[in-house]
Design brief:
Keywords: Membrane, Transmembrane, Transmembrane helix. By secondary structure, this protein is an all-alpha fold. Helix content is about 75%, strand content about 0%. It has one domain. Helix 1 runs antiparallel to helix 2. The longest helix is centred in the C-terminal third of the chain and has 29 residues.
């Protein structure tokens, strides 16, 4: 069961890391062959980063609510 939870957090972590790489490359002017413009590359990187971060944060919040560690703040 812990392996499945680890994989559920590993995949969005990798996606967020790729998003950071895309944003960094766009900031320094390195165009990835998947995209035609640096702006599009930066926006896709930002979306990947934020999406992965929201998924990980939601997973942790769900786990803490389940274990009743939120003290009623996020009910």
């Amino acid at each position: 069961m812990r392996v499945i939870a680890f994989l559920l957090l590993l995949i969005p972590g990798i996606i967020s890391t790729f998003g950071i790489k895309l944003m960094r490359d766009a900031f320094f002017g390195l165009l990835t062959p998947l995209f035609y413009h640096l702006i599009i590359q930066f926006i896709v990187g930002l979306l990947l980063f934020v999406g992965g971060l929201i998924f990980i944060g939601g997973f942790i919040l769900h786990r803490d609510r389940k274990r009743r560690k939120t003290k009623g703040r996020f009910e």
